[in-house]
From TrEMBL:
This is histidine kinase. It comes from the Bacteria. Residues 116-149 form a coiled coil. NCBIfam families: hybrid_RR_LvrB. SMART domains: HATPase_c (SM00387), HisKA (SM00388), REC (SM00448). Residues 158-378 form the Histidine kinase domain. It comes from Leptospira fluminis. It is an enzyme of class 2 (transferase). Residues 5-121 form the Response regulatory domain. PROSITE patterns: HIS_KIN, RESPONSE_REGULATORY.
Length: 378
């Protein structure tokens, strides 16, 4: 067992010697810190950062419950064991419910080392779980960013084409002005058109940059119909290039939700991109009813208000045997250069983090509907 730093809150030198003797008999090596009052105890837990705390229950000018409370505030993960001679059943229940790790009676110190080893084992297991959770979070963040880059790759070409049109218009109007157009009213109209086209480019670029930015902010109240408008601004040109009608209905009033908007926008773009791919897989050219419909509405789930966003397409659909696997990481039916299989698995992870649900229904060669459900902000 590695050499640890133990803090003893004990007013009796004799009892302290008995406790330490029992630890030595059990083969425990440690650095001893001994305090007897509140001031010294508080200084020790803040400055020394002990690995373990042993505390008497009753002291002349201090008490064990107060010591436990201070420890939970200053070092909540540090194991805390009461070692006391005055300890009834009610006191035992009270200390454990307040967060003590264990308790040992002074006339039964033979139980001290087993209690210590059990507490240390539990502490190590807790730390291992925390590390695993941190690693899992970091991996999920990397997957989200990878998927976001994948989505941006699909959108970049279409966005460049969309921006090129207003740029060419701006250049043409500027050349006309440069030639010395004498009609003042005509020049004003051209200037207004230049401003309009410039603002159009600005909106598209801002929406794309907002989506591209790695988001680590706090959850905020967001009206999802506004997010749908941003999603349309980013993805509309890709739909146009595929001869797809992207219909986004934002007419219904919906409650705000608590979310990280960039992440929800990522989910929406994933779903729309998948719909575009499905429609092109059915027929790359134009055909009647080649469309993606996106709309938001209020629904009741468990007697509570939720917002449901539906993304519907009339593409190839999802066969039942494939539907069972579509949310699995790296599962994809697309060619290697057209998808990594991250989109839906990352989307599901994001939606779960927001306390929501992501589901779908589909009839092959007829339609697919994805449902993004998020609870209304309280």
């Amino acid at each position: 067992m590695k050499r640890l730093k133990f803090l003893f809150l004990e007013d009796s030198p004799t009892d302290l010697e008995l406790i330490q003797r029992e630890l030595k008999r059990g083969g425990v090596e440690y650095v001893s810190l001994h305090v007897q009052d509140r001031e010294a105890y508080l200084k020790a837990i803040v400055e020394e950062k002990p690995d373990f705390i042993f505390s008497d229950f009753s002291l002349p000018n201090f008490d064990g419950l107060s010591a436990l409370t201070l420890a939970k505030e200053a070092c909540p993960s540090t194991p805390f064991i009461f070692v006391s001679g005055t300890y009834g059943e009610d006191a035992a229940i009270q200390t454990l419910t307040r967060g003590a790790t264990d308790y040992v009676l002074k006339d039964r110190l033979v139980k001290l080392v087993p209690a210590l080893k059990r507490a240390l084992r539990e502490s190590e297991e807790t730390e291992a779980r925390r590390k695993a959770e941190r690693d899992k979070f970091e991996i999920e963040e990397q997957l989200r960013q990878s998927q976001k880059l994948e989505a941006m790759g699909f959108l970049a070409g279409a966005m460049a084409h969309e921006i090129n049109n207003p740029i060419m218009a701006i250049i043409d109007y500027a050349r006309m002005i440069e030639k010395g157009e004498s009609d003042v009213e005509k020049v004003k109209r051209m200037a207004i058109k230049i401003q309009t086209e410039g603002e159009r480019i600005s909106v598209m670029v801002k929406d794309l940059l907002r989506f591209a930015r790695q988001e680590k902010g706090q959850f905020e109240k967001v009206t999802l119909t506004h997010s749908l408008i941003k999603m349309k601004s980013i993805s509309e040109q890709r739909a146009k290039m595929s001869k797809i009608f992207l219909q986004v209905d934002t007419t219904e009033d919906v409650c705000p939700v608590l979310c990280k908007e960039g992440q929800i926008l990522q989910v929406l773009l994933n779903l729309v991109n998948n719909s575009i791919d499905s429609l092109n897989q059915k027929n790359e050219g134009y055909y009647d009813d080649k469309r993606v419909s996106v709309f938001a509405k209020m629904v009741d789930m468990g007697n509570k208000p939720w917002v449901r966003i539906t993304v519907e397409d009339t593409g190839v659909g999802i066969p039942p045997e494939i539907g069972r696997s579509i949310f699995n990481t790296f599962f994809t039916t697309k060619e290697a250069d057209k998808g990594t299989g991250l989109g839906l698995s990352v989307s599901l992870s994001i939606v779960k983090e927001h306390g929501g649900y992501l589901s779908f229904e589909s009839v092959p060669m007829e339609y697919t509907r994805f449902f993004l459900d998020l609870p209304c902000a309280v």
